């Protein structure tokens, strides 16, 4: 047999063993016969390194209780002084009519390689977890610093920006008579760019808040939320022919305020980029696929070049001229940040002059 086999009497003394038991333990039969589980040369230990007393070892526990034990891991010292690990099973032998065994058969095999491998895996896992924790702390600190910087800079920019706009307004209103047409044009350019800068600051603050704010998850009626957003955006399309179709949207788990911002940004973009169309078409759809809900906002607007699809979700990334379509290039970055925090994904499909579809997912 490849497994070691030892037979011990009711007193715990070894009365028989096979050659595999001698080979595994590195001790001859003559050295082992008559020994009990308390023999100190074995230096038996548990996996955690604590002593494994003889009376608690499987063979002695079987003799004491009459129960069998399986796959008990024990460390022992071989005859050459090396530590090995064995997996031990014990089975009682009963005489007819007796409740306690008159002997116990113990089988075991060497699992040292397995134990060493498991120990190495545990050590590497601990090292990996420590490194991941350190990198996570560094990343969180960097994100906090970036958000703090963005927040501070945005606030600090407001005061001089207000001064530029206010003084330009005073100059335009109170000194209009002394200014020629070119001066009036330059003042309008200054105020227009001040307004654009103000919008950029607002969007930077919104982006910083989207990353800093903790999500408050709840059960959300996505269809009702989409219709509320469309109602709020309705004044922006007064005088235009816009057809909006909202499908049957499922309930989702998410932060209501954050998901509202996602829909505001996506639907706002759909209204904006369909402006050149005499008959704008916008569709809001959602379906459950596997363990996630896939939501989409489709329009028949100006579209975009497909190779730049991933750039759309970056900060300050714009694929259209600011004079044609207003915006700061942060709205879709906010969408991605919110969806990422929910554990979802974002992507876009489109083609020039053929409309665009923006997708986001939420875990079920």
Summed up:
The protein has 364 residues and is of the alpha+beta class.
Keywords:
364 residues; five-stranded antiparallel β-sheet; 8 helices; Heat Shock Protein 90; 23% strand
Write the layout of secondary structure elements.
Elements lengths: L3 E6 L4 E4 L1 H7 L3 H4 L25 H8 L3 E9 L5 E11 L9 E8 L1 H63 L6 H32 L4 E5 H12 L8 E5 L4 E5 H18 L6 E10 L2 E8 L31 H11 L4 E5 L5 E8 L1
Helix pairs in contact: 4-5, 5-8, 6-7, 7-8
Structural class: alpha+beta
Give the helix level as a range of percent.
Answer: 40-55%
* CATH architecture identity of the largest domain: 2-Layer Sandwich
**Arithmetic mean pLDDT:** 87
| Spatial strand order of the main sheet | 2-1-5-4-3
Which stretches are poorly predicted, pLDDT < 50 over at least 5 residues?
A: none
- Return the CATH class of the largest domain: Alpha Beta
Order of helices and strands: EEHHHEEEHHEHEEHEEHEE
Number of beta strands: 12
Distance between the termini: 54 Å
- The CATH superfamily of the largest domain bears the name Histidine kinase-like ATPase, C-terminal domain
How many structural domains can be distinguished in the coordinates? 3
Strand content is: 15-25%
CATH fold name of the largest domain, please?
Heat Shock Protein 90
Radius of gyration: 38 Å
Shape: elongated
For the report, how would you describe the main beta sheet?
Answer: 5 strands, antiparallel
Q: What is the tally of helical segments?
A: 8
């Amino acid at each position: 047999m490849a497994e070691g086999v030892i037979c011990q009497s009711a007193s715990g003394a070894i009365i028989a063993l096979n050659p595999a038991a001698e080979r595994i333990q590195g001790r001859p039969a003559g050295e082992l016969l008559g020994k009990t589980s308390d023999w100190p040369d074995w230096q038996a230990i548990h996996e955690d390194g604590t002593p494994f007393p003889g009376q608690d070892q499987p063979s002695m526990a079987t003799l004491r209780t009459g129960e069998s034990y399986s796959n008990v891991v024990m460390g022992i010292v071989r005859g050459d002084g090396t530590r090995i690990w064995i997996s031990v099973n014990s089975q009682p032998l009963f005489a007819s009519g007796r409740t306690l065994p008159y002997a116990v058969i113990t089988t075991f095999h060497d699992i040292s390689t397995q134990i060493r491998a498991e120990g190495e895996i545990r050590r590497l896992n601990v090292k990996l977890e420590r490194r991941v924790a350190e990198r996570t702390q560094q990343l969180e600190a960097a994100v906090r610093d970036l958000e703090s910087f963005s927040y501070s800079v945005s606030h600090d920019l407001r005061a001089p920006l207000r001064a530029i706009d206010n003084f330009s307004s005073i100059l335009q209103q109170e000194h209009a008579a002394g200014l020629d047409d070119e001066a009036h044009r330059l003042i309008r350019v200054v105020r227009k760019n001040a307004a654009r800068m103000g919008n950029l600051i607002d969007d930077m603050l919104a982006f910083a808040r989207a990353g800093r704010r903790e999500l408050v998850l709840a059960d959300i009626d996505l269809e009702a939320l989409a219709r509320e957003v469309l109602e709020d955006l309705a004044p922006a399309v007064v005088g235009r022919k816009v057809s909006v179709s909202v499908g049957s949207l499922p309930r989702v788990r998410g932060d209501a305020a954050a998901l509202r911002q996602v829909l505001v940004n996506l639907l706002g973009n759909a209204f904006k980029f369909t402006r050149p169309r005499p008959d704008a078409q916008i569709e809001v759809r959602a379906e459950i696929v596997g363990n996630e809900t896939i939501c989409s906002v489709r329009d028949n607007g100006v579209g975009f070049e497909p190779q730049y699809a991933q750039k759309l979700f970056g900060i300050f990334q714009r694929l259209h001229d600011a004079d044609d379509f207003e915006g700061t290039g942060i709205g879709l970055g906010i969408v991605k940040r919110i969806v990422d925090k929910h554990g979802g994904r974002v992507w876009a499909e489109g083609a020039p002059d053929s409309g665009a579809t923006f997708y986001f997912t939420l875990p079920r």
